[in-house]
Amino acid sequence: MKTYTNVFDLGDLKTALAEAFEIKKDRYKYENLGKHKTCLLIFFNNSLRTRLSTQKAARNLGMDVIVLDVNQGAWKLETERGVIMDGDKSEHLLEAIPVMASYCDIIGVRSFARFESREDDYTEKILNQFIQYSGKPVFSMEAATCHPLQAFADLITIEEYKKKERPKVVLTWAPHPRALPQAVPNSFADFMNEADVDFVITHPEGYELDPKFVRGAKVEYNQMKAFEGADFIYAKNWACPGVTNPADYGKILNKDMSWTVDAAHMAVTNNAFFMHCLPVRRNMIVTDDVIEAPTSLVIPEAANREISATVVLKRMLQSL
Ligand SMILES: CCC[C@H](NC(=O)CCC(=O)O)C(=O)O
Ligand SMILES: NC(=O)OP(=O)(O)O
Fold first, then answer.
1. Distance in Å, CA 22 to ligand 1 centroid
2. pLDDT at 214
3. Helix 148-161 and helix 183-192, axial crossing angle in degrees, nearest 10
4. Percent of the chain with pLDDT over 90
5. Which among 48, 43, 41, 187 has a CA at the least distance from the CA of 111?
6. Which in 50, 88, 210, 225 has the greatest CB count within 10 A?
């Protein structure tokens, strides 16, 4: 595995799940694979789960780990080529990437959507420069349009808790005070469309996700109708993806609190499990009673981030 940026990089999902459950049984099974190998984790944005779980995964495999918060301590980076660098940015990505790559064997990158240009975000301009100029295997720790480590952990969680062979899984939009990326819902849809589930996406009009990720999923604008009979509810906020109206890309079009997932929503489901990637804005995305209920999986879901990262890093080490 040379890159991990989307579901297709993982190959057959049943095989990937088998590897995940093997690791879950003994997460140190491959502890010698990463001996004298270094994993560099580069963060352009904040993180708790990804920062901790990916370090743990690298250590499970015997790797050394370096964590760099680009905007805290390193030089501010220019990402545009051809720019006269007379401003506040001291270093260009085109030097920084090969320099950083010289100190490690595998690179993880977190670089959220910037909402300045839909084209720059949806062509993964930053992540692809690391892939192109580092010469090392690169995995996404949430880039502009995808968060595949999260979605793989979500799939593992659904596989562990499902009570039927083909569960109904609903991805629901919910309100948020900020304009958040589409990376998490995009990757969740990416994975659910390849998994053996009955997948439904529900959101207000105007929030249509990119067709590249929606693919054959059913889109239902009536949230309560979408929730009927659901086995899993996956809640997330995202800003306008700019599909219906490109000029609205990155905007907040709606803060309708009737989309907040509460007990009345969960009552029409098939006693569904509740999921969210975290961090979550309580009583915006979901009410306290729903996220604290026995059917809430947000903690085991977050714990599975160690497993998804260990599988991905194992495959990258095996490809060195
Ligand atoms: C794993 C999720 C990371 C990120 N979440 C946020 O930026 C939430 C920030 C906030 O709630 O203020 C997102 O929505 O993509
Ligand atoms: N879910 C997730 O990736 O959390 P962090 O942003 O805290 O890493």
1. 30
2. 98
3. 50
4. 98
5. 43
6. 50
